[in-house]
Amino acid sequence: MDNLLPIPEKYEYNGWPSLPRPDLPTPAGWSRSLVGAQERVHNHRLSADGSQVAFIRDTGTHSDVHRMDVNGGWPARISTDRGLVAYWDDEIPQWSPDGSYLAFCMHGHVHIAPTAGGLPVNISDFTPSASSPRWMPDSQQLVISVTRHEADQLLLTDLHGTFSRALTNSTDGDHWDAQPSPDGKKIAFSLRRFDDLHRLDICLIDLETGQIRTLYGQPGVRTRDPRWSPDGSCLAFISQQAGHDDLWMVSVDGSGTRQVTHFGSDVNQFAWHPGGQSILLTINHAGALDLALLHLPDGSLINLRTGSGVHSNPNWGPAGQFITFEYESPLNNPEIYRMELPAGTTRQLTNTLLPALAANRLVLPEQVSYRSFDGLEIPAFLYRPEKPNGAALLYPHGGPSAQYAFEWDLIAQYLVARGYTYLAPNYRGSTGYGVSFEHANYNDWGLGDTQDCLYGARFLGGIPGIDPQRIGIIGGSYGGYMTNCCLARDPDYLFACGVAKYGDANTLSSWALCKRELRLYTEIFLGHPANNRQVYINSSPIYDVHNVQKPILLLHGLQDDTVPPQASEEWASALRAHGKTFEYKTYAGEPHGFLQRENLEDVIARIERFLDWHLLPK
């Protein structure tokens, strides 16, 4: 479809463009290049013997695989030409059980790299593309994911890619997250069924017979992350059956299904202790993801680390004597840490924070909430600048099935340093607050959630010192779509301007243009457009473009395969036809998220000028 609707890299505007404000200097200690230069480490994995960690390092030009000693030291770079991948959409490098190899995805294929040295080798060139490698216990074979018959399938191959055996070959759904049993005789996986997109099952493959059976599955219930107990007798997984993301267990024969956690909060990730007697958890408490240890025999819970931050990707050392994890917060950039147990002493393994950035005073947001049009309480994070300029910004996150949390958000800190009060609401449809809240935007995109954002503007306007006439909205992906909706569907014109990064305006045409996975993702919320056409029309602000009265800045990468760049092109065409004030910039070679450093700095500059021009008086 891209060939039918090509878009060149361009900048255009209708109305007077935003110009630099020489009367508004950059805040002391800050620069756009400082924001763009900060690297990010993420998605780490501890080797089976506990001696090394592998991880991804985003540099602004590459998202390459690195490894380092678990005691710290200088990272060794394993890949050298792995393209940029958004950290929220990237995979975790996989160690072979014997530690000799790392498997990871690059250029759309599974690659194997010897840890002793050598170039990564493509082992999936027998198929158009592949992903999600998982090692078998013998360190010689892997399960990988391929697309066949319009579904994601599981395939068994070896570390040289010299043979392939289809483990699944059905058209009933997508087969994800293969997990070989400790004895290598079975494969657990998640099945996303096409006859019920609101359902995710836990299934099991017997490698000797090829038989596939369902261990756990309920209509309309999503499960994820099947993980074997160390003795191979049962599987732990996360299920939404009881209204939250709780930890459940089921025996390998399908018996003894039981709910393990009853926190009233979502379990985000977990990892079995090597001895099987406890499980390491990250637990979501309204956007703070704490690290805790669940003792299985008596159900007792020990909080290891809590507070205003996000813990992720917990890993156990081989005998349970230590753990590794990632941690970030609004005040701390993402890094990898090691904790000794049971003492709890913790030290940082990686150190990527720029000294110039470390010298700046960052802002910890407050947790607030406000009532929306129908009385629903909307949780939010409020950043108050040290030197407020009287203007404010509302930032709806992407997704919509996601959450703004106590996370590292450097662009938010830069805008707050410029004096903007900054509110990040978790509108209806956000995760982390239970299944009912997460499903509250089904068949309702662009309506109730738009009102949540508009009531967020009213909340901002009631803060002392904020001028209600100088509130803007800025968002990316679904947040960019929220920006478009708010400017087109607000008779009170609460926002003075908007910035839509890779956002949507016509869900029907975007459904037709995007790849299969994204079409199915949209159908989870809105159904199929052949059956729910009016729902798609109701969700599309392009039909209300005549109501737009305030200027908007559109930014989109031309290699975006999540929200097709034609979405912004169509929205710009509609704005132009109706004589609306807008600026529109596209970026060649840029995927979803503005990952290239040069482009990111240009994006920040354009946003800075646009907001200064439209929100700040002389």
Keywords:
618 residues; Rossmann fold; 11 helices; 17% helix; 35% strand
Please provide a written account of the structure:
With about 625 residues, this protein is of the alpha+beta class. It has a domain at about 10-20 and about 355-615: Rossmann fold, CATH 3.40.50. It has eleven helices and 37 strands. The strands form eight sheets. A nine-stranded mixed sheet has the order 1-37-36-35-34-32-33-31-30, with helices on both faces. It is globular.
Strand and helix layout:
Elements: E1 11-14, H1 32-37, E2 40-46, E3 52-58, E4 63-69, E5 76-77, E6 94-95, E7 101-106, E8 109-114, E9 121-122, E10 131-135, E11 141-148, E12 151-158, E13 164-166, E14 173-180, E15 186-193, E16 200-206, E17 212-216, E18 223-228, E19 234-239, E20 246-251, E21 258-259, E22 266-272, E23 278-285, E24 288-295, E25 300-305, E26 310-316, E27 322-329, E28 332-340, E29 346-348, H2 355-358, E30 366-371, E31 377-383, E32 392-394, H3 410-417, E33 421-425, H4 435-438, H5 448-461, E34 471-476, H6 478-488, E35 497-501, H7 507-513, H8 516-526, H9 533-538, E36 552-557, H10 566-577, E37 582-587, H11 597-615
Parallel strand pairs: 32-33, 32-34, 34-35, 35-36, 36-37
Antiparallel strand pairs: 1-37, 2-3, 3-4, 4-5, 6-7, 7-8, 8-9, 10-11, 11-12, 12-13, 14-15, 15-16, 16-17, 18-19, 19-20, 20-21, 22-23, 23-24, 24-25, 26-27, 27-28, 28-29, 30-31, 31-33
